[in-house]
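Hi,

I'm pasting everything inline rather than attaching a file, because the server keeps stripping attachments. The sequence lines come first, and each chain or strand is labelled.
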Amino acid sequence: MKMLTCSRLNSYFGNPSKWVAKGVILLFAIGSISAQAQESPAQKQSELIKPLNKRLKSIDLLAQVAETEVSSVTEKPGLVSTAMQWLRSTDRPGDLQFHGFVSQAYITTSDNNVFGNSDNGGSFGLTEAGFNASVRPLPRLQLSAQVLSRRAGEGSSGMPRLDYAIIDYQVYAHEANQFGIRVGRLKNPFGFYNETRDVAFTRPSILLPQSIYFDRTRNLGLSSDSVQLYGDAAIFNWGTFSTQFGVTLPVVDNRDTESSLLGLVRPGSLNREVSYIGRGIFETNDKRLRLGVSGIWLNTSYDPNNKLNDLIGSGALQFTPVFFSAQYNTERWTLTSEYAIRPFHYNNNFGVAEPTARGLNGLDFVGESYYFQGEYRFTPKWEGIVRYDALFTDRSDRDGKDWVAESPTRRSGLAHSRFAKDITVGLRWNVTPQFMLRAEYHYVNGTAWLSGLDNPIDLRTGRPFDTDQHWHLYAIQASYRF
Amino acid sequence: MNLFHFLIQARISSYFLSRARSYFLFAIFVGLLGVKVDVWANDHFEIVINPSVSEVALSANSLRSIFSMSLKTWPDGTKIRVFVLSDDDQLHKAVSKGKLNVFPYQLRSTWDRLVFSGTGQAPVKVNSIEEMLEKVANTPGAIGYLWRANINENVNVLQIK
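And the predicted assembly:
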């Protein structure tokens, strides 16, 4: 591409060979920073053909044949893609579409368990697969549903579940302004990544920044039964402001959520109570700058199971996080940062019978999370990522010392369970548009986002059996989509 | 004094004039490299629509909304059906950057967000220019893009304001 640009200048301006030389120097200077992404040889050919088109307008047919050949080069015939061809076929009634993905990761850690027994030789514990269908029976009406299977350590068994099932009606649409309503089980819109967090292709890394996208409370955060209003509005000629607001019933009836919110898996169950969620994202017309703010008002309460001698009472809790998101995109760089402030409020009805539950009563604390992330596209096929991600369970006690001081005998040496600072570097290879491989390394100081199910707590002492403050995580992943 | 100034100015301008062509080329070169606009390519493709669509012109914002899959109906209420080539196709890149003013990877992530959150659909991918021509010509409400050389009477060209 760049060489072609030079030669084109050559032909336009006579004999500026010295400018080509200067240009090449400039090219190396700029190329590494902001120039156009590299082109594959197939596209170079197609560019060569274009000037031909201009000159040989009378021989359109020839050019057409040549271009068709080039375009078809990009589509590789293969067993799987042939098999998938019927899924991509376009001649279906109601614009029926099918999409899906399968991802498998291998994770190994120096200490602590992530998605299975990862610190003992590694594990293939993270498998994600999804399949969705959507149809537009009327121009403004869309129905869609997705089934998701996720096998990830003790928290997710791989049992397929209904991820979303949505009726979407666009009430009003004019140019960039739209307004509509969605009803059903919806993905919770918060931050940049939550709605598609299980689709490896849409994630910047194998593990999303855990400070904000907790995988241990994922079922709670992922989707909920709701009614949602949405709207897009053009803001002058700058860009579009998109908002979503939903009234929801959160999905809290699972072990991971209980263990995270109540410290342990309890005999009783968490109730689904009316909660609210909202998000606004401003995006410039060229999608270079994206700014977002999202908020959740989550309510839930606990129903003790008295037959099983439940030791905690019928308490209620509120979780009201607010997320701020910002992203800047250039051809090669994508810079992303998100910040979350996460207030928890537990009422006084949890009782005092059990030592591990006593702490829940009247608990009131504010967590804080943020990350900075840079993605760099060396070529469209190769991408690198670096990230710093920090989580503080209680932002007034960032090193966990106050928390230990409240109960020194039980908590000594566990201050690291109140924070986690994660440095990540990774590499992604888009082998084809459908198939992707990647690898990443994490150095983590702290254990705050470790799953309590994968790293169990000794019931007699209330302490985790075996966790270490400083640890390393290596992961590789393969993912296919259609 | 004025003469002195004039002489200096004359020297400076002659110095720069002798290099004017160089600077001009340099500027163009930087422009071609750094900015994403493929000026020459813009002249070689058009946004095309099925003849059933009554629109003859569209704003750039509307066009972006259509290819971002958020605007789903034509003003007369009929379905918009969007056809695209593969993300790494040269024509797709030229249209993304030149007409929509976004990078292909941004369109891809927009479509992925819609498809995998259930809030929208992806455009239909065609595998060749020929298929693009055939689909746009035969699908009611269709919109796509073609090199000028490939456009024939079976599709209409949409003007972008």
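The CA atoms of residues 269 and 303 of chain A lie 5 Å apart.

If the labels don't parse on your end, tell me and I'll reformat.
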